[in-house]
Design brief:
mainly beta, Lipocalin, Nuclear Transport Factor 2, Chain: A, 2 domains, 5-stranded mixed β-sheet, 3 helices, elongated
Length: 247
C-alpha cells in the first residue's frame, strides 16, 4: 500500500450532519480546512500524517492550533469521510460526511480498475465454477440490480440460482476490460444451455461490491464452421493481460 495514491491537490466539500468543511489536500504532509458554520467556524492549515489502507482509503490525522485532535478515515472510492475529533473542551465527536469534489487532484492514481477486475473475476469463478452461493452476500451489493430478463431481481434470487446450479455448469474467464466503476468480462459457460455459450458480462461496482449487471450471450459455433475461420472464445486470451490482482 503506497502513499503515492493520496490525491494531492484535491479540494472537496465534506457535508457532515452539523456543518460543512472545505478540505484542500495540499500535500502528503499538509491540508487546509475551512468551516463557515458559526459554531465551528475556522480556517487552518495543519500538518498531517497519512496512512494508506489500500485502494482509495486513507487514515489522515492531525492536531490543530488550539490542541484539538482529529482523525479522518477518507474513503475516496465510496465518497465518504469518517471523522473522529477530540475538542479542547473534552467533547468527542464521531461524524460521517459525504464528499463533493470541488477540484480534482493534481495527479490521478486510480487503482479501481485493477481491483474491480479482480472482484469480478472472483465473483464469476466463485459462482459459476465453484457454485459457491455464499459468495453472493460477500461480493454483491444488498440492492444488486439485474438486467438479464430471465433472472429475478435481487441478491437473494441470485443466491438461490447459484445454489440450484447443475454440477455440469462451468465458467471459463477470458479478457477483462475495466474503466472507472465498470468492468466487462468475456467468457465461456458450459452447462447453462444445451450448447456452450460465449458471454460478455458487464458489471457496475459500487463501494467494493457488484451493484449492477448486464449480459449478452451467443451459442458457441466451432471455428471450423465460422465464416471467418476464427474461434468465438480462446481459453488463452486471459493470458494476454495482467490478472495478477486476482491471484
Amino acid at each position: 500500500m503506497s502513499i503515492d495514491a493520496f490525491p494531492v491537490g484535491l479540494v472537496m466539500e465534506v457535508a457532515y450532519p452539523a456543518f460543512r468543511a472545505r478540505v484542500t489536500l495540499l500535500s502528503t504532509t499538509r491540508l487546509r480546512f475551512e468551516i463557515a458554520e458559526p459554531a465551528f467556524a475556522r480556517t487552518e492549515t495543519v500538518g498531517i500524517e497519512v496512512v494508506p489502507l489500500g485502494g482509495g482509503r486513507f487514515i489522515v490525522s492531525w492536531q490543530e492550533a488550539d490542541g484539538a485532535t482529529v482523525v479522518n478515515v477518507q474513503d475516496h472510492d465510496a465518497g465518504v469521510v469518517h471523522a473522529y475529533a477530540t475538542l479542547t473542551d473534552g467533547r468527542f465527536l464521531r461524524m460521517t460526511g459525504t464528499i463533493t469534489i470541488v477540484q480534482p487532484a493534481q495527479r490521478v492514481a486510480d487503482d479501481r480498475p485493477r481491483r474491480n477486475k479482480a472482484l469480478v473475476l472472483e465473483a464469476m469463478t466463485s459462482l459459476f465454477q465453484h457454485r459457491d452461493a455464499s459468495a453472493v452476500e460477500r461480493l454483491y451489493a444488498a440492492d444488486y440490480r439485474q438486467h438479464n430478463p430471465g433472472i429475478p431481481q435481487g441478491r437473494d434470487a441470485l443466491q438461490a440460482l447459484v445454489a440450484d446450479l447443475s454440477p455440469e455448469v462451468h465458467y471459463e474467464p477470458g479478457l477483462v476490460v475495466a474503466e472507472g466503476d465498470l468492468v466487462a468480462i468475456h467468457g465461456r459457460i458450459r452447462g447453462w444451455a444445451e450448447v456452450p455459450q460465449v458471454v460478455v458480462d458487464l458489471f457496475r461496482i459500487e463501494a467494493g461490491r457488484l451493484a449492477e449487471h448486464w449480459d449478452v450471450l451467443q451459442d458457441e459455433v466451432p471455428a471450423t464452421t465460422t465464416l471467418g475461420g476464427v474461434s468465438m472464445f480462446d481459453p488463452d486470451e486471459a493470458a494476454r493481460q495482467d490478472l495478477t490482482a486476482a491471484t
